[in-house]
Prior knowledge:
The chain is built from 12 helices and 10 strands. The chain is an alpha+beta fold. The strands form 2 sheets. Strands 1-8-9-10-6-7-2 form a 7-stranded antiparallel beta sheet. Strand 3 and strand 4 form a beta hairpin. Helix 3 packs parallel to helix 4 (187-194), helix 6 (233-240) runs antiparallel to helix 7 and helix 9 (337-346) packs antiparallel against helix 11. The radius of gyration is 25 Å and the shape is globular. 30% of the residues are buried.
Amino acid sequence: MDKFLPLVMSMWPFAIALACLLVWSTIRRFTLRPKISPKPPSSQWKKGPDRQPGTWTPSTYTRPPAEPYPDWSLQDTKPLLYRPHKWGPKYPITMGLRAMPMDEWVELDNRYPYFHDERTTRIREMGITVSQTAPEGLAGAHELLDELREYLPQRYPSLFRKTAEGIENLFTGDAFNTVDPPLGQDPIQIAGSLVQEDVCILVERADGQYYLAGGAVCTRGVWCLQERLGMPLSQIHIEYGKVPHFKEKLEKGVMNLFRRIQPENPVQRNTWYVIGEDAINREGFTVGAGEVGMSEDNFFYKTERQTVRRLPLSGAVVFTFRTYTVPITDMVDEPYAPGRLASAIRSWDPEMAKYKGRETFDKLLDFLDEKHNEQVDHGLDMSKEDEVHKYPY
Length: 393
């Protein structure tokens, strides 16, 4: 026995090190938070009650009253700084869904006066080009307006007031009768004039496909509602939008989401683009910048915050998207933003790069690299990004 003692003693430090490694691994496994945004709860993907496509049994779900937005002010509440681009080297081609707290459904800020004027003007002057509802979407549009009548005064009590007849906008003084049909105006147009988001109604037909049945799509530089009205989701994304990799990587997930989503489990996601200055006010959707060799002053960072929720009575699905656009030169002083954006652009595969106009970005990438290096030279600690930046901000 004594002759084995030196061997045992020599192995003792390795045994201690191995034990410490196992303990550390276990602690790390159960305590570290993921770096990516949480996926929706599994309940959102569970199959709902069996039903025939194109049919819906009204749900008993009632949205809980919304808590007022903390310290919201028409003068002081700034737009949220969404920065959903991620580091390369691989560009994530996923839906990127996150659970959406129902209170956070509609986002309003101190740019509301601008958006309200822009949206109401375009609805008045452009009519059905930017806002209309097909007959099959009217039940959903009326229910959407009813939801906004309840939600907006709860979430933004200094901006909206619920009345016996409908809802009053305290900023403009406009009052809308939303309870005594006929309303005298398409309900989706009223809904679209109340918020900063673009709003769409989608309904399921007997073929199991979801069709665009109405909307108020008033933001400049986005797609034309009239051209897509009546199209199914797949056609909108593949034939009309020509979204890269949608057919092979996204279509099944999108269809499952719309078929399975329940009224109590809404979701949200963020997308982003880099666009040229001339694309901001252009009619119709434009991806990418204008000309090769453009300087950084001509580029803008455009991001959308999108939400999907099912209305409990009609079963229609409401899709909203809020567009945020800022000059690239305004965001490069934000810690980590320029380096992460350059890495994200370089992570596009050839098809995505062509879709997003990568060939015009050479000078922009040089500028982003320069700004990133300046941040590192001034002491930016790359290991602490998670303490400063949490997706999608």
